[in-house]
Write a structure and sequence with these properties.
mainly alpha
Length: 295
Amino acid sequence: MTSMSSSIIFGAVLQLWPYRLFFFGLTIIALSLISVKGVVKTNQVVITVKSFGIALLGGQLLAVIATVIFVVWSLNWQINPSPTAIENWGGIYWHFYVDSSFSEIGLSLTVLGVIQASEKATWSSIGFNRPNISIFLVIIVVAALYFALHFAISPICQNLSKWIFLYFDIHLNQVDGGLDLAKLDVWLLRQIAGHIGAGGAAVIVLWIGVFTSVIEEVFYRGLLLTALLERVPVWAAIVGQALLFAAMHMDFVRLPYLIALGLILGYLVKRTSSLLPAVLLHIVVNVLSLTTVIA
């Protein structure tokens, strides 16, 4: 075998994008239907469905285009790249470098687009405010919630995930050479860190642990939660953003935990009227998880 069709690599790189666009499309439709029902008056809405929808889908479509261009460029614009290139990009490295990175960048473009397009949408309106509690209390709350997540909620969610998989007769082992599916992310991150080389672990911690946490909080608990709070009761807004947050991770093994984390982060933002506590908690959760995995 001397060459393979580039469709193989694009099939691997782009396999999650239809699901992302589908979930985001459902979100826009839901917001549109809620608005039509007249839950709020149009002149009171800070984040309109039009600005949100155009910015969200526009940002993700730009991310898809950037992904395709990056992959084609990395393959030296070859229509039929070598089997080695196919193996590398269709294996473990493309997910971190291309798919996840551009998707997160697309979310940040969405926030920027809404802020620029909406007259009433400001950074302050989506949570860039000082918390209504002291910084000292923020630190105490973040620490308490982290320990609760790590020692109580996470074990419960893990057992729930196992029960769900057993109930539907889904086996977590014998995946990719006998690797347990629950440990697959750990293996991937270590491989990626080794591929990056010196400082690979630090790059992963900074990107996934810090920058991704900030981007996700600004989008899900800032932009999306604000849009939902304008249209539905508080509990429904918090639940809605948590469900989308969990679904967009495409991680069925950790789905219960991600839902629980999204609920806690959403409530934290609503309770403190600020993104800061949620951003700090999200960073702490991700960074400490990553350092134990790839250290």
